[in-house]
């Protein structure tokens, strides 16, 4: 949502910090009180509390506190403490809401005369900000809208000067106070704009001879502007509406939402309720709540919420886990139901999200059984068949009653089933649409010809006819056609491919996407599919280049983020060729949206969005992901035009409307989702009048919602006969009036600020104006079908024979996702998996790797050997790495690294040059030593026999001998590893055998000691053979593939990197070997 109410203390703090200097406004002094307050500490920090008269009141978004007796004035500190103590955590009834008083504010009492009180309020609407001022204020002000003087400040205009404020608002104010108040209102309005307030009311505003005092304050901020205003706002605490406690689970989901590109919302209405919902989509979530309340379940509805915008499996798991945790806190005598619902998704992978739900259900299985919880599921969209399958199977496996339905079932039918109002159908009898793009012939061909007598209970009582002479505008030009070309802002390859597939199935002659604009890469061409063929679509770094090279493109679809969508749209408006802009992003600050609407209207550009999936004109053009996957496009017959045009706020519900309309009529003619934000770029009326003027649109559908007053414009147009075509209308959010406290639904604009804005009032007004209004959303399809049949009988609509669309190949990746194909993998891996929510090392999550503190040795053992070895062996691996990390700059590997670094090469090149020297002569003796010692030991050779045999063969014993170290000058590296192995390894036969060999070789020469290669190699073999972690065959295989030498490679890489960094740090120049250190031995010159 966007506009959120803040506490009075928060509003006064913002005014204290950000109101411009130069007004006579006194600094607001206040303290906030709750159950954790330490009064003595509070008084020591605010001495005025004990020396001045005070005012105390709750600070919990309660309106008309004075009228309700919830304010104590002219009291001392002790009286304030007593007043708070009598009310803290006590139930308070306010209207229909009952809640506990938990937060209070104490301020100095300001003595003043009644005539010094005034009222000021600023609020925003679509075209302007309105400043209200009344020269009288206080609790008895009455109908301020009728009394107050008003000054409208148009969007994107300058802040009004003091003379304008004085002449328009201060006509009843004493002359000596006019300059003071005008200056204050001007500064207050500037603060309102700069800090993205959407509402700010001060009543009373006390204006004395020398100061202005802000006594009571109510305010709302546009939370979508957080990325702009965070430095000025600081951390804002947004309290819940009075009567509804703030739950930690709500805060957890809100935090999850803030960190996600998806939309995750949760409002707990009644934690003891038996009906819980987990609904995908902002619009769908409201409709499910409506239906539950219509069925009499309002008192048992436990929560409102939504998960949408393609949340990941992990995010859905976290959301589902939170819901199930709340459900299983306390039992209900009748058991509980969980309704997992949603419309037909546009782009969310249903199976992926359902895997998250299944994971949570498995975790809570015992509690679900204990609490007698039944689950009802209805969902459709990409990969829904797999999603429904896995959730159906998990119900059987976990012995939880799970009833599963797809798009063949009306969206909200499961609500009546869950509440016992409707029988649960046999799952075996359910019909499913195909997921295979290549089988369009399996689709039905629309409704049959209507019968001679209508039998539907929703049969309309009137039959409006479309008169060709006066019902349409002859100059009408459609928004989209089969020739429409678009430019896409953003690298949204999936959405582009979806548009191209739609074009192909609609039999367009050329793609609707002319080009892409993506500022973060250079100009290039991007590959896509056009049916079976591959085509190249240009992508430009600059919008100007795209426009110049594609002058026939007249639609811009911007997938820019909420932070950059405004800028990209404003840039688009510079190009006259663009007639329509679709803005997909949700959460653009309202001030920016209003400015954009103003500029678009000036240039006569149509804006669809923000916060929309877009729109579709079957047979012609679709925006982005509208219509979902190809199976849904085929199922809803969007590949050819029908006769029914609709406009909706909800993008998710537009797909559901496509489904409903395709079953109830000959299909969709055009559909637009204007977006769920408070100020959509175009209104319902903008599109309804287009449909009215389009001769091919025969029936219009309006899906409105709670909040705003745009639907009343439609009522007036119906009454004045500007709309003469049949209009079927329904406003969602009828449940809002049944809740005891205010609920903000999924869309930013879906909240009623007055009775006029409620869905119930709108539906009644639409019906009275002549629209067809069903009894509930459940009956919407029946009513559409009745009106459609009537139009067919009238001859207004003549159904055409159904023609099968061309086949569109399914993308390989999606076909594989659906399990329709298989192919051998190009690579195999058994050590690491990065595909899930968490990286796995040989099956162990990285969080467990750190939690169990396995160390580097443990990580090596997981990635090299597919298992975590016991700690003593992990420690041995770490010791080996540490002791082989470096051996000075003179050895060949370090020397190469240094020479390469001094030649100016990069780290990787220098490291590789050093590693390439590792072999039999340098560092590669580990494998050789392991092989020689283990073969001798396995053959049963006495150490003396082993030494004698190698001497006879003229071979050196790998792992024996050192250039400098000897029996008298031992290698400390060898000593450390030998002592560790002898002390900690349970069995170490090969190390003991090698030490016996050393006793023999050192009698010949004292430097023929067991060197570091030898001790590590033999200890490694002992670890492999005797740790209990490997079979004999596995141990031998690792020795043969060179696993032991890898210890030296890994360890010595540390040293090589150190030498590289050392040379760069010392700024050493190019190395050239001195000529006097080279023996030049050339052949004698030929004479």
From TrEMBL:
Start and end residues of each CoA-binding domain: 482-587
Comp. bias (Low complexity): 447-461
Keyword Protein biosynthesis (UniProt): no
MF terms (GO), sorted A to Z: ATP binding; ATP citrate synthase activity; metal ion binding
PROSITE patterns (UniProt xref): SUCCINYL_COA_LIG_1, SUCCINYL_COA_LIG_2, SUCCINYL_COA_LIG_3
Every ATP-citrate synthase ATP-grasp domain range: 2-233
EC number of the protein: 2.3.3.8
Domain ATP-citrate synthase citrate-binding: 244-420
UniProt family annotation: In the C-terminal section; belongs to the succinate/malate CoA ligase alpha subunit family.
Function: Catalyzes the cleavage of citrate into oxaloacetate and acetyl-CoA, the latter serving as common substrate in multiple biochemical reactions in protein, carbohydrate and lipid metabolism.
Subunit structure: Composed of two subunits.
Protein name as it appears in the record: ATP-citrate synthase
The organism of origin for this protein: Trichomalopsis sarcophagae
Lineage summary: Eukaryota, Metazoa, Ecdysozoa, Arthropoda, Hexapoda
């Amino acid at each position: 949502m966007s506009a959120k109410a803040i506490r009075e203390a928060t509003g006064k703090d913002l005014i204290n910090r950000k109101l411009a200097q130069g007004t006579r406004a006194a600094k607001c002094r206040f303290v906030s009180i709750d159950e954790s307050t330490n009064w003595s500490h509070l008084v020591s920090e605010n001495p005025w509390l004990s020396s001045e008269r005070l005012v105390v009141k709750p600070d919990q978004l309660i309106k008309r506190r004075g009228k309700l007796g919830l304010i104590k004035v002219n009291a001392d500190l002790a009286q304030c403490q007593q007043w708070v103590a009598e009310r803290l955590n006590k139930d308070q009834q306010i209207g229909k809401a009952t809640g506990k008083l938990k937060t209070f504010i104490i301020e100095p009492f300001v003595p003043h005369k009644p005539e010094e009180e005034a009222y000021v309020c600023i609020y925003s609407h679509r075209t302007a900000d309105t400043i209200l001022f009344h020269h009288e204020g206080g609790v008895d002000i009455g109908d301020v809208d009728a009394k107050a003087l008003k000054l409208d400040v148009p969007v994107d205009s300058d802040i009004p000067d003091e003379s304008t404020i004085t002449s328009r608002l201060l006509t009843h104010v004493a002359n000596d106070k006019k300059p003071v108040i005008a200056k204050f209102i001007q500064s207050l309005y500037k603060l309102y704009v700069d800090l993205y307030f959407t509402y700010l009311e001060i009543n009373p505003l006390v204006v004395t001879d020398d100061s202005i005092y802000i006594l009571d304050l109510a305010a709302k901020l546009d939370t979508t502007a957080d990325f702009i205003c965070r430095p000025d706002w600081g951390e804002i605490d947004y309290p819940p509406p009075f009567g509804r406690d703030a739950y930690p689970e709500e805060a957890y989901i809100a935090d999850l939402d803030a960190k996600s590109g998806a939309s995750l919302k949760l409002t707990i209405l009644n934690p003891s309720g038996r009906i819980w919902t987990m609904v995908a989509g902002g619009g769908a979530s409201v409709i499910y709540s409506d239906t539950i309340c219509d069925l009499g379940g309002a008192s048992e509805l436990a929560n409102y919420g939504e998960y949408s915008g393609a949340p990941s499996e992990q995010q859905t798991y976290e959301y589902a886990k939170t819901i199930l945790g709340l459900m299983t806190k306390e039992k209900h005598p009748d058991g509980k139901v969980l309704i997992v619902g949603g419309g037909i998704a546009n782009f969310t992978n249903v199976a992926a999200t359902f895997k998250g739900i299944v994971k949570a259900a498995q975790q809570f299985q015992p509690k679900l059984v204990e609490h007698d919880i039944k689950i009802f599921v209805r969902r459709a969209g990409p990969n829904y068949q797999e999603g429904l399958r896995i959730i159906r199977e998990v119900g059987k496996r976990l012995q939880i009653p799970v009833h599963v339905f797809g798009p063949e079932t009306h969206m909200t039918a499961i609500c009546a089933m869950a509440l016992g109002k409707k029988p649960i159908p046999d799952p075996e009898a359910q019909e499913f649409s195909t997921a295979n793009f290549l089988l369009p012939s399996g689709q039905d061909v629309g409704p049959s010809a209507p019968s001679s007598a209508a039998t539907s209970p929703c049969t309309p009582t009137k039959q409006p006819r479309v008169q060709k002479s006066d019902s349409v505008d002859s100059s009408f030009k459609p928004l989209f056609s089969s020739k429409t070309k678009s430019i896409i802002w953003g690298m949204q390859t999936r959405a582009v491919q979806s548009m191209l597939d739609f074009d192909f199935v609609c039999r367009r002659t050329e793609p609707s996407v002319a080009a892409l604009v993506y500022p973060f890469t250079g100009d290039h061409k991007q590959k896509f599919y056009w049916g079976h063929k591959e085509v190249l679509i240009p992508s430009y770094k600059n919008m100007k280049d795209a426009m110049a090279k594609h002058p026939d493109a007249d639609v811009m679809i911007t997938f820019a983020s909420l932070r950059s969508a405004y800028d990209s749209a404003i840039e688009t408006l510079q190009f006259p060729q663009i007639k329509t802009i679709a803005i997909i992003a949700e959460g653009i600050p309202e001030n920016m949206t209003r400015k954009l609407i103003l500029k678009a209207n000036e240039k006569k550009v149509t804006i669809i969005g923000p916060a929309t999936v877009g729109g579709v004109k079957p047979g012609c053009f679709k925006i982005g992901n509208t219509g979902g996957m190809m199976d849904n496009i085929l199922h809803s017959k969007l590949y050819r035009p029908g006769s029914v045009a609709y406009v909706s706020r909800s993008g998710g519900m537009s797909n559901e409307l496509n489904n409903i309309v395709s079953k109830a009529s000959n299909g969709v003619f055009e559909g637009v989702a204007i977006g769920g934000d408070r100020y959509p770029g175009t209104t319902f009326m903008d599109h309804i009048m287009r449909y009215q003027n389009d001769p091919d649109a025969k029936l219009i559908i309006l899906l409105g919602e709670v909040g705003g007053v745009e639907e009343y414009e439609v009522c007036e147009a119906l009454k004045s006969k500007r709309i003469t075509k049949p209009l079927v209308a329904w406003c969602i959010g009828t449940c809002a009036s049944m809740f005891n406290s205010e609920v903000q639904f999924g869309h930013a604009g879906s909240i009623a600020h007055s009775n006029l804005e409620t869905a119930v009032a709108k539906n009644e007004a639409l019906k009275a104006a002549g629209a067809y209004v069903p009894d509930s959303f459940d009956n919407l399809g029946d009513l559409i079908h009745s009106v459609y049949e009537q139009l067919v009988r009238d001859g207004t609509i003549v159904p055409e024979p159904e023609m099968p669309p061309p086949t569109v190949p399914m993308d390989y990746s999606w076909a594989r996702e659906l399990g329709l194909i298989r192919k051998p993998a190009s690579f195999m891996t058994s050590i690491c998996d990065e595909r899930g929510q968490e990286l796995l090392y040989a099956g162990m999550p990285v969080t467990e790797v750190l939690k169990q503190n396995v160390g580097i040795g443990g990580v090596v053992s997981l990635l090299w050997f597919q298992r975590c070895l016991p700690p003593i062996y992990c420690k041995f691996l770490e010791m080996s790495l540490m002791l082989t990390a470096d051996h000075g700059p003179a050895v060949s590997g370090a020397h190469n690294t240094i020479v390469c670094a001094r030649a100016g090469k990069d780290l990787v090149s220098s490291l590789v040059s050093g590693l390439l020297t590792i072999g039999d002569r340098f560092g590669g003796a580990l494998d050789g030593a392991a092989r020689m010692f283990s073969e001798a030991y396995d053959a049963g050779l006495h150490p003396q026999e082993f030494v004698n045999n190698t001497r006879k063969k003229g071979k050196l014993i790998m792992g024996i001998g050192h250039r400098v170290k000897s029996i008298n000058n031992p290698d400390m590296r060898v000593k450390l590893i030998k002592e560790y192995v002898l002390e900690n390894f349970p069995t170490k036969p090969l190390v003991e055998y090698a030490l016996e060999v050393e006793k023999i070789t050192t009698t010949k020469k004292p430097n023929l000691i067991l060197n570091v290669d030898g001790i590590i190699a033999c200890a490694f073999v002992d670890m492999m053979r005797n740790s209990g972690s490997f079979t004999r065959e596995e141990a031998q295989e690792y020795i043969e593939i060179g696993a032991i030498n890898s210890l030296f490679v890994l360890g010595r890489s540390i040293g090589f990197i150190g030498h590289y960094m050392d040379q760069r740090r010392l700024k050493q120049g190019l190395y050239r070997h001195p000529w006097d250190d080279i023996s030049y031995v050339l052949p004698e010159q030929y004479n």
